[in-house]
Write a structure and sequence with these properties.
Strand content: under 5%
Order of helices and strands: HHHHHHH
Number of strands: 0
Amino acid sequence: VPEEVRNQAILFLTSLASSSSILARLITFSEGYDRALKIALESFSGLQTAGASSVTMDCLDLCLALAQADDVARELFLGGGDGVGNLNRLAQLMDLKGGERYRSEERNAWWDDEMGKRRKKRLEAKTKS
């Protein structure tokens, strides 16, 4: 499926989910969360592509519209249909698991230096008392 068609389908599904809880539930039971978050992650990992962040946001908007529909839709989000878990996918989008910008040598060197200074101050304070 061409990206433009897929992107328009995401917007269309978001509109449908926002307008009817019955349609939102149907989308949810059709692996709506799983598919939207997979697309979001694919777009997020390739942010060099123009419009990738827009696609990611549209997918998250779809997930929000589905979650706002009813309690069942929210519970299905937590279940994560294919075993990977939607919360894990969401965490990857939020970069909670040590993304590249947090693993740079410069940042790690600064952090190690700061922790060394703090340890040294604690040791000095212990020896003085």
